[in-house]
Write a structure and sequence with these properties.
By secondary structure, the protein is an alpha/beta fold. It contains 13 helices and twelve strands. α12 (about 285-290) links the parallel β9 (about 275-280) and β10. α5 (about 80-95) packs parallel to α13 (about 300-315). The longest helix is centred in the last third of the chain and has 17 residues, at about 300-315. It is elongated and about 80 Å long. It starts with 9 loop residues before the first helix and ends in a 12-residue tail after the last strand.
């Protein structure tokens, strides 16, 4: 870097220190959210190279819109509506506005929403990836542009940003352990796309519970549906009942669980006497369906609130805990669809 007065830019200082442009800008304005030692380092280098601030450029870097974007696969999905409610509540309590961007589980729409949010200069983004998403470059661009990003639920593990997730592995394990405790020995798994992290973790919990008690793992009773649509749940359950002698089903969503119950009833079998069923999400319909659905809780409002909290903390202090993983626990809610006398079959 040269030493001519006014020739050194924020970008030069960021390159020299290896610190992001946003953090350099905040340190030069003596922002208390930047660590004291980081502020002192940046300010000392600025003095050394005779940095003179461009107040226009500085205002562009530090000016906030007090707006965050939330990218979700669906708006009408009960879990995501709860997440949005929790995130909006926390954001509003902290004087932030929210822009909702539903992808409808479309990769193309997800990419378009991210581009619009980045071009619109939001202060940060909360996102859950769609079932179709396998290329994450639009999220990588977000990180490269120093726009704070927090994932929730379905996340991109490769990116070093905060993630708010349910303990899906342990929840899947607890669900299947409950079926085992009810006397089930041939337990099927019905879940959504395997590449989606939450589905895969729930499946791994299923495997652990079976292998732990020495139950054989039959891959003919493991189904990864292309979506969690009811039609897929019913058709795959019908195929399982015809081909395999199962006495329990762990479904990775309540939609798939209720679809499974419909298929079981259509075959003239009883739930839980012939086949016990456990779902996942604690949707309202599970409480009024017949039989009522045993399920794992998925506290969406809590997840949304924690995601908004993590994002606003990241906006205020970009150097703090970039790779933080915030775990939310799930509870087993026992209802009629799995409750029966323990017995060998």
């Amino acid at each position: 870097m040269g030493t001519r007065k006014g020739s050194v830019t924020i970008k030069d200082i960021a390159k020299k220190t290896g610190i992001s442009i946003t953090t350099v800008s905040r340190a030069l304005s003596n922002n208390p959210h930047v660590r004291k030692e980081t502020r002192e380092l940046i300010q000392s280098i600025a003095r050394k190279y005779n940095y003179v601030p461009s107040y226009r450029a500085l205002s562009l870097k530090t000016n906030r819109t007090n707006t965050i974007g939330i990218v979700v696969p669906q708006l009408t999905h009960e879990f995501f509506s709860k997440v949005i409610r929790g995130a909006e509540r926390y954001a509003q309590d902290n004087q932030y506005k929210v822009i909702l961007c539903p992808s409808n589980d479309s990769y193309e729409r997800e990419v378009a929403h991210m581009e619009r949010l980045l071009n619109g200069r939001v202060d940060g983004i909360i996102a859950c990836i769609s079932n179709e998403t396998r290329d994450y470059s639009h999220f990588t661009r977000c990180v490269e542009q120093d726009v704070p990003l927090v994932f929730f639920d379905c996340v991109v593990e490769a990116l070093d940003v905060p993630k708010v997730v349910l303990d899906d592995f342990n929840a899947g394990y607890q669900a299947v352990k409950h079926l085992i405790d009810q006397g089930c020995k041939r337990i099927a798994y019905i879940g959504g796309p395997e590449h989606v992290s939450v589905n895969y973790q729930r499946y791994l919990g299923y495997k652990k519970a079976l292998t732990e008690v020495g139950h054989p793992l039959n891959y003919q009773t493991i189904v990864h549906c292309p979506t969690d649509h009811r039609d897929h749940g019913e058709s795959y359950t019908q195929n399982l009942i015809q081909a395999e002698n199962i006495d329990g089903i762990f479904a990775a969503t309540d939609v798939l669980a209720i679809a499974a119950i419909r298929a079981i009833k259509a075959k003239g079998l009883k739930v839980p006497d012939d086949i016990a069923v456990v779902g996942f999400s604690n949707w309202t319909i599970g409480k009024v369906y017949e039989p009522t659905l045993t399920t794992m809780s998925q506290p969406g409002a809590k997840i949304g609130g924690k995601a908004a909290q993590a994002l606003i903390q990241l906006i205020n202090d970009p150097d703090e805990n970039h790779s933080r993983r915030i775990i939310v626990e799930s509870d087993l809610l026992v209802r009629q669809s799995s409750t029966r006398l323990t017995r060998s079959r």
